[in-house]
Each structure stands twice: as structure tokens, then as C-alpha cells.
Design a protein that fits this description.
This protein is mainly alpha-helical. It contains 3 helices and no strands. It is 75% helix and 0% strand. It comes from Sphingopyxis soli.
């Protein structure tokens, strides 16, 4: 089993790629959990029009931008990534909402 090094400790591209691959696996697991909350939202919401909530979307993007800045990352870049994540989450929730009431 490959030992995953912290970024500052990497000396080869093999080590860098192993770290990136590990992070990707962890992110997928977190996204599966996040989408589980979309399943819950689809189950709880009684009105399909409430699936898209622009105020909540703006709040999520603002939260991410603040967290990115605090972590020393570019807020606009992370906001763009999260915008896509939120849009995919909304689309997924709408599909799940329809499936539950189909």
C-alpha cells in the first residue's frame, strides 16, 4: 500500500498523483453523502417549485467563498466549482422529487 504524503513532503510526481487520487476518493465519498442530503430534501419538500431556492444557493456560494478565502484559496475559483456542484445537486434533487411522486 502506498503511503500518502502531504503536499510539502512530495518529491516525485508519483507521490503527488497518489495524494491527488486519495483526495479524489475522499471527495467522492463526501459528495455521495452530500447527495444523500439531496435525497432527503426531495423526500421532505412538498412543493417541486421549492427544489430551486436561489436565496439558499447564494448563501451556499457565499459560505464557500468565505471558507476558500480563509483557507488561502481563490474565492472566485471555488465559487465557480461550487456553482456547478449546486446546479448538479438541484438537478439531481428535481429528478429524485419527481421519482418519489411519479
Amino acid at each position: 500500500m502506498t503511503v500518502i504524503k502531504l503536499p510539502d513532503d512530495c518529491e516525485t510526481m508519483i507521490e503527488v498523483r497518489a495524494g491527488v487520487d486519495q483526495i479524489d476518493r475522499e471527495l467522492v465519498a463526501l459528495l455521495a453523502r452530500r447527495f444523500g442530503y439531496m435525497d432527503a430534501a426531495a423526500r421532505i419538500k412538498t412543493d417541486r417549485n421549492s427544489v430551486r431556492d436561489e436565496a439558499r444557493k447564494a448563501e451556499v456560494l457565499d459560505n464557500v467563498a468565505r471558507a476558500a478565502e480563509a483557507a488561502g484559496l481563490e474565492p472566485a475559483r471555488l465559487r465557480a466549482v461550487w456553482n456547478e456542484l449546486v446546479e448538479q445537486s438541484i438537478a439531481y434533487e428535481a429528478i429524485r422529487w419527481d421519482a418519489l411522486r411519479g
